[in-house]
Design goal:
Elements: H1 3-13, H2 55-75, H3 77-88, H4 96-107, H5 116-152, H6 154-185, H7 193-204, H8 213-242, H9 252-286, H10 292-306, H11 309-333, H12 346-353
Helix pairs in contact: 1-12, 2-5, 2-11, 3-4, 5-6, 6-7, 6-8, 8-9, 9-10, 9-11
Length: 359
């Protein structure tokens, strides 16, 4: 590679969309370069607290993920209880309002918080894996792609990174999800995690906790891919089209507000794409020995896509917006930048790399 190409690459690395991989935790230099570049949030002035892409960075992202997913899913437990019962017994729970009324009449206020303990533990573990591994895979795949393709195919990197992270996260979530659904939809099954978990293991063995893993992947992987890719692009568009100053000049409260707004919009798309699999997960975890074919036959194709959908849109939109807000607030509290919001310099790539279609 001639010197002009090298200069081109280093000009690109000056763009805030990229960052030098001086620590080289996942790759080694080649082609004479001393650094790699990758798609990521913009760098901010060092604060002496946590070095970007260090072990401490990924640990902090994991803690932020545990907080944002565990707390928000637990807070949404009443809506989740109603939604699951609407999916399992639509003849009894015909609408959201009637579902709330029936649960209150039959079980009182405590009925709305059934399954809160497996929800808190399960989604805390899932969130830690999801956010921590997303940051890891986003950087890892971008390093593999190199500077030119990391910019050109940034959305594919978001999709691949989030999908990889979710595969791991769902293995952590699945046992708690199995307990949660049964506690919420089978009266008298168990009071919560402490007695519900061993009851499933005694009846069906350890693998009984994982029989919903494949449909859980079917629900969560598309959901998470949509959640991360749409969030990153929506936030980028907000800063590009609606905010008159660069992101680094915006106040932290404004940046966090944009994170919430971007997350809420992304959550609506997430609910739409993952809802059929959500109905499958609820049905399979509630019906011993049931198959996906049984679920489709029982729910019907229309019911698979629509049963419980309005309440899930409200639930997931609020949930996703709050998650990104909490996650970025935690990152800011430990001195890290908020997520997303920088566009690659198209002019540099077009003129200096000679790309006809840079994006």
């Amino acid at each position: 590679m001639d010197s002009s190409k090298k200069n081109t690459m280093y000009n690109i690395t000056s763009n805030p969309f990229f960052s030098s991989n001086n620590n080289k935790p996942f790759s080694t230099p080649k082609d004479g370069y001393s650094s790699y570049v990758f798609a990521r949030s913009p760098l901010e002035p060092p604060n002496g607290k946590i070095e970007m892409y260090s072990k401490e960075f990924y640990a902090a992202c994991g803690v932020g993920g545990a907080l944002c997913c565990g707390l928000t899913h637990t807070a949404m437990t009443p809506l989740d209880v109603v939604k699951c019962n609407m999916q399992i017994d639509p003849m009894k729970y015909k609408s959201t309002m009637s579902g709330f009324n029936i649960l209150h009449k039959e079980q009182g206020l405590r009925g709305f918080f059934k399954g809160w303990s497996p929800t808190l533990l399960g989604y805390s573990m899932q969130g830690a894996c999801k956010m921590g591994f997303y940051e890891f895979f986003k950087k890892y795949y971008s390093d593999m792609a190199g500077p030119e393709y990391a910019a050109k195919y940034k959305t594919l990197i978001y999709l691949a990174g989030s999908a990889s992270a979710e595969v791991i996260a769902d293995v952590a979530l699945c046992p708690m999800e199995a307990v949660k659904v049964r506690v919420q939809t089978q009266p008298g099954f168990a009071r919560g995690l402490q007695d519900g978990l061993p009851k499933i293991v005694r009846a069906e063995g350890v693998m009984g906790l994982y029989k919903g893993l494949v449909p859980l992947w079917g629900r969560q992987i598309p959901y998470t891919m949509m959640k991360f890719a749409s969030f990153e692009n929506i936030v980028e568009l907000i800063y590009k089209k609606a905010i008159p100053v660069p992101k680094e000049e915006c106040s932290k409260p404004l940046q966090l507000g944009i994170s919430f707004a971007g997350g809420y919009i992304a959550g609506i798309f997430c609910a739409l794409i993952s809802h059929p699999a959500d109905n499958l997960v609820s049905f399979l975890n509630n019906s011993k020995g049931a198959t996906v074919g049984d679920a489709v036959k029982n729910l019907g194709l229309w019911g698979l896509f629509t049963r419980g959908l309005p309440i899930r849109i409200v639930m997931i939109g609020t949930l996703t917006g709050a998650q990104w807000g909490i996650y970025d607030a935690f990152k800011v509290s430990v001195g890290l930048p908020t997520t997303g919001g920088v566009t690659p310099d198209v002019a540099i790539k077009t003129k200096e790399l000679g790309q006809e279609n840079p994006m």
